Amino acid sequence: METLAKTWETWSEAVCIICAAVSLCLRNLTSERTFSAGIECISCLYGILTMLQLQSLRRGFRGIIQVIGILFLTLFLKSSLGVTSTIVHANLSAVTAGNYSTLWLIDGGANKSITPFVNDFTSNYRSIDVNIQVAKLNTTMKAIGVGDCTLNCLDNRGKPCKIKLTNVLHVPEASRSLISSSSLSVEGYQTVLPSAAETFPSGLYLPKQKKLSTFIPLSSMNGLYFIACRSDGKRDVTESKENMVIKLSRKMGHCPLQVLWDTRKVVKGLEHLDDTHFSRNFITSDVRKGKLVQASVPHSTENTPSRPNEVWHMDTIGPMPTTSVHGFKFNTSFTCGFSGYVLSYGHASTSQIPEIQEKWYADIAKFREIHGEPRILRCDNASVNMSRRAAGFRLLKGIRTETICPHESHQAGVAERMNRTLVTGTRTVLLASGLDNSWWHHALMYQSYLQNIKYSSITHSSPHVLMLKSMPDVSNLQEFGIEGWLYRREDQRKDRKLDARGEPIIFVGYPTNQQGYLVWCHERRGSKVSIATTNNVVFGSRCPRSIRSLLEIINEDNLKKSIKISLLLHLL
C-alpha cells in the first residue's frame, strides 16, 4: 500500500508539472488565456508546497490537486484536439468544404480586384463602361460595374474574419475572382507567399494587428494561390431606395416608373412608396432593349362602353417563329373596352379559336355576375372567327358580333394596342431574365396578369379594381426568371433522411384560375419541360440565366429634379 501511495503521489506531481509546461504552449497556440492561467496557478501552488517541505499542508491539499489536475488535463486534451481540428480545417479543407462559395485568386500584378459574379458585391455598386487590358492573354475585357466586396473567411486560428475590398470591378467575362495584392497593401494588408525557407507563415496578414500571428491561410491549386471565402457569413448589403424602386418595377413586368407610382393607389403592398422620391421618367437598360422602338398608335373608332363587361375586343397574334414550351404558335387575347382587363389564351392552331371563345365566356362568369352579360364582341373578318360554331355560340349567348373592314386594323384599336403592349412586355422580360424565346407564352401570360393590376391613365384606376371592385395585394409578386427552391416531399426523395429537401427552380409566371406560382424545374431529367404549380417555394434575389447587373442606379440628376418637383407640389 505504501508503494502504491508513493506511486500515486509521484504521478500527481508529474501531472502538475506537465500541466504547467503545456499551459505555456497553450497560451501561444490559442486565445484561451483563462484556461492556461488556471493550470499555471494550480501547478505553481502545488510546487510551492513541495519546495517548502510543508508535508501536512501538502497531504491535505493533495486530494484536491489530484482531482483538479486530472480535470484540467482532460479539458486540455479536449481543447487542444479542437484547436488542431480547426487549424486543419482552415488550412487543408479550404477548397473542399461545403460552406465555401468562392475562391479568390491572389495576383501581385493586377492593380484592381475583379469578379465575374454580381452577387459578390455588398455595397456602393454603380454602373460603368470601362475596357480592361489583360496583358498575359493580350485581350480586352469590359467592366460593367464597380463596387465594394466583403469576404467572410477563416483565419489561421479557425476564427471568422472579414476582408473589405474596395473599388472591385465587375467583369462578367472573367473566369475567376481576383484579388489585387497592390490594392490590399494600400489598405494595410500584407501578402506572404510560400517559400523554401519561410521567415513567416504564408498567408494574407490582416491590418492593424499587434501580432503577426493572425493571418488568412492560402490554398494552393495548380501553382496558383487562393483565399477561400465563406458563403454563410452575414452580408451587410446596403441598398438604396432608388434601386428598390427598380426591383419593384421588374416585379411589375418592367413597367414605367410613373405607372409604378400611380399603381400604388389601386393595390395593396406598395404603401412604402408614398415617402419615396424617384425620377418618374427614368428608363432602365432592360426597357431600352425591349421597348425602344416606338410604333404608331392607331386611334380608336368605336364608341366608349357605358359599363364593364359590356364590350370585348378579340385579336390573335401568330404564328410565332418559335414554338412555346407547351407547343403553342398563337395567342388570342380578349380585352374589355371599358376597363382594359385582358384575358389571354395560347393555342397551337387557329382552328381552336371557337373553343377558346367558349372558354373565355366561362372565365368571365364572375364579371357577368357583377356587371351583367356582355353585349358586343369586336373581331376581324377571319374565317375562323366567322365559322358556324363561333358565330352560333355568340348568337346563342346573345352577343352581337361587330367586325372591321378588310385591311383596316386601326378599327380594332383597343385589341391592337393591347397586343403591342403585351408583346413589348414579353420581349422585355425575356431579355431581362435570360430565358430563350420558347418561353414567350409564359412571359405573355405573366404580362397579362400584371397588366390587369397596374394603374391606367385612361380610366384613372386599374382593370382589376374596375372589374372585381377590390384592390389586389402585390407584396408577393416575383420577377420573371428569378431563382427559387421548391420543397421536395418525403415521397419525392429516395433517401428521406439525407436527400436534398430543396430543388432549384426558375419562376415563369402565375397559373390561370389557380393560386400559386408556375416554376420550371430545370434540373429534372426527361424530354419534356417540367413545370409545376406550387405555393411551397422560396425565392432568391437573382435571375440565374441573366447576364445583366442585379443593381441599377437611377440617374442622380433626374432624382434631384424629381425631389424638387415633389417639394414644389407639396408647398403648393
Give a description of the structure:
The structure is a single chain. With 572 residues, the protein is of the alpha+beta class. It has four domains: 2-91, no CATH class; 100-230, Cathepsin D, subunit A, domain 1, CATH 2.40.70; 293-430 and 437-466, 2-Layer Sandwich (Nucleotidyltransferase, domain 5); 483-539. Helices cover 34% and strands 22% of the residues. It contains 14 helices and 21 strands. The strands form five sheets. Strands 14-13-12-15-16 form a five-stranded mixed β-sheet, with helices on both faces. Strands 20-19-18-17-21 form a five-stranded antiparallel β-sheet. A hairpin with a 7-residue loop joins strand 18 and strand 19. Helix 1 (2-29) packs across helix 3 (55-91), helix 2 packs antiparallel against helix 3 and helix 11 (413-433) packs across helix 12 (440-451). The chain starts with a helix and ends with a helix. The model is unreliable at 26-36, 77-101, 232-238 and 565-572 (pLDDT under 50).
Question: Keywords, please?
Answer:
single chain, alpha+beta, Nucleotidyltransferase, domain 5, 34% helix, elongated
Summarize the structure.
The chain is built from 14 helices and 21 strands. The chain has 572 residues and is α+β, with helices and mostly antiparallel strands.
**What's the end-to-end separation, in Å?**
104 Å
CATH class of the largest domain: Alpha Beta
Instruction: Please state the structural category.
Output: alpha+beta
Strand order, sheet with most strands = 14-13-12-15-16
Question: How many runs of DSSP E, i.e. beta strands?
Answer: 21
Relative strand content = 15-25%
Q: What is the overall pLDDT average?
A: 75
Helix content: 25-40%
Task: Examine the secondary-structure arrangement and name the CATH architecture of the largest domain.
Answer: 2-Layer Sandwich
Shape: elongated
Radius of gyration: 35 Å
Q: The CATH topology of the largest domain, please?
A: Nucleotidyltransferase, domain 5
Kindly report the name of the CATH homologous superfamily of the largest domain. Answer: Ribonuclease H-like superfamily/Ribonuclease H
Number of domains: 4
Largest sheet: 5 strands, mixed
State the low-pLDDT regions, or none. 26-36, 77-101, 232-238, 565-572
- How many helices? The count is 14
